[in-house]
Amino acid sequence: MKKILGLLLFAPAMMQAQDYQKIHRKAIVADSHNDILTASLEKKVSMDDDLRGKTHSDLARFRQGGVDVQLFSVWCDGAKQQPFAWANREIDTLYAVAARNPDKIVITKTWKELQRAIKDQKLAAMFGVEGGHMIENDLAKLDQLYERGTRYMTLTWNNSTPWATSAMDETTKKDSLATTHKGLTDFGRQVVRRMNELGMMVDLSHTGEQTFWDAIHTTTKPVLISHSNAYALCPIFRNLKDDQIKAVGENGGVIQLNFYSGFVDSSFKTKETRFNRAHRAEIDSLRKTGMQTEYAITTISDKYPLEVKASRPPMSMLLDHLDYIVKMIGVDHVGLGSDFDGINSAPQHLDDVTSYPLITKALLERGYSKRDVRKIMGGNLLRVYKANLR
Question: Could you give the CA distance from residue 226 to residue 219 in angstroms, rounded to a whole number?
């Protein structure tokens, strides 16, 4: 009798597990920001190998996590020489992976190609250039990146360009910007207008507040926030303030949540600083080999997973950001921009790209409907992508 009672009590939990997995499989899962291309070059690995323990992502794990559409970040920091050439090198790496694995991944450039890839159960891949410095102040290079499959560009990274100021610079260099420019210049507005003409989403993550507002008032298409959260819950320069969130909603755009612990939990920064200080010598040693600082920190974080795990916030805190945005502008304007392989810490249980089903489960537990889940997991991002097409 006790055995039967135990099975009866366990049955609802089993049914719930099956339900969320089924709902996740049926949803089109689309992530707007993953840095595996940069990680592959910095760590000298290939995405079509088994990279468990080395990265957050690889081709097999994308499939395991149910990812249907991935916008791959193309990034280098502002100190990198010849950033346009570096961007093309990163793009080349994905073309090589796709050529070796035509049954698993395809680089899509049109809505029809994307839909075909999803139907054929292949990973639909596009590029997102993270930082306007990578076009080297040349609209022709913007066009070239579009032709290669770039479907969004972040107007700035942490570094400003001569035509757009970043959130970091507008926060930390207020006095110096007063003598130069703040926000978009005339050329910066030309960049936004050209992106609209091409069908390339204007990404306002990383941009300063003035750049954000200048771009909102210039664009004629819905904007993308590829990997940012809510400032009210975690007041750091990379997150969106309430008036910005409302503006994205009014514009018809979408805010894709960043999994980085430091953008989720305001107490994480102190913990991260303590970790970096403790391992400064190892980080500096990697930097001396030519590795970019962000990946030196990530590599050392991978070396000490137990230390990193202890400082990770609960996954519920990430979903609190989602709830906050939904309550303000509705469920049609939020999605996922993990920043996997560009971050050294994510909330508990979000260990790699196989973790997306856990988000579906958590959303259902919070009372989101199946329709809401489909929107959050990818529908909203694809709506904005389609609205930007020529």
Answer: 16
